[in-house]
Amino acid sequence: MNLSGNTILITGGSSGIGLELCKQLVHKKNTVIICGRSLEKLQEAKSQFPEVEIIQCDLADKKQCEELIHRVKSNYSKINVLINNAAIVNKIDFIGTENALEMAENEIAINFLAPLNLIKELYTTLQQNLHPNIITITTGLVYTPRTDYPFYCGTKAALHSFTQVLRKQTENDKVKITEVLFPSVSTPWHKGNPPKMAISPEKAVSQMLKGLEKEKAEIKVGKVKLLYIISRFAPGFAFKKVNSIQNEQ
């Protein structure tokens, strides 16, 4: 993938990995559009990077998602890269949490259904432009889940599976389907308690962009490749190891 001269939509682009992607891709002379739920955070991103275009959108809301799609098609018809990055997590005890099912529905809507919606509705527009690429952001936890994330790992595993299917079904089209699997990254997503092994957003995104330049279909960042191998040959050990990792206190 050529890392300059693109028109890119990044969901969840106002903080964490999404904001770092925005920073590095704007620096590489791309037109970058970011969306997010918080207008305040979007405006903060805009103040840091005046070139970036911002759109407020709660991806769990179907109407807002439709409005986002319409706006992108109308105002950014040259879009050729979609980065499905937005995700939330509920760190809960499933049985012991009264509104767990409501949390699950919201997490599934943002982490899984929203990417499918954006891909389905923007696919034709992407395909009409040069060097189209759909990039889904997942995690090494698609191989081995953490027990304190009852829905997150499942939604990302579903997105991982869907991405593999989509890549096969569209293999005769010119749209490239890429998946990026991240390890723990030190971002606000961890709410101030990142695991000790978490890498910086700068390092994570730099490795991602190197993988894109090499046109890898699956980009396993950091120690995800090691986790993949261990989970294949010693799944029980991998599960135990992932769930023994402690967060900073």
Q: Outline of this structure?
A:
The chain is built from 8 helices and 7 strands; from the N terminus they run βαβαβαβαβαβαβαα.
Helix/strand order, N-terminal first:
EHEHEHEHEHEHEHH
Strand content: 5-15%
Strand count, sense and barrel status of the largest sheet are: 7 strands, parallel
Give the helix proportion (percent range): 40-55%
Number of beta strands: 7
Written description of the protein model:
- The protein has 249 residues and is of the alpha/beta class.
- The protein has one domain: 3-Layer(aba) Sandwich (Rossmann fold).
- Helices cover 45% and strands 14% of the residues.
- It has helices spanning 16-27, 39-48, 62-75, 100-127, 152-169, 201-213, 224-233, 235-242; strands spanning 7-11, 31-36, 53-56, 81-84, 133-139, 176-182, 218-220.
- It is globular, with a radius of gyration of 17 Å.
Jot down its keywords.
249 residues, alpha/beta, Rossmann fold, 7-stranded parallel sheet, 8 helices, 45% helix, 14% strand
Question: Which secondary structure elements does this structure contain, and how are they paired or packed?
Answer:
Elements lengths: L6 E5 L4 H12 L3 E6 L2 H10 L4 E4 L5 H14 L5 E4 L15 H28 L5 E7 L12 H18 L6 E7 L18 H13 L4 E3 L3 H10 L1 H8 L7
Parallel strand pairs: 1-2, 1-4, 2-3, 4-5, 5-6, 6-7
Helix pairs in contact: 1-6, 3-4, 4-5, 7-8
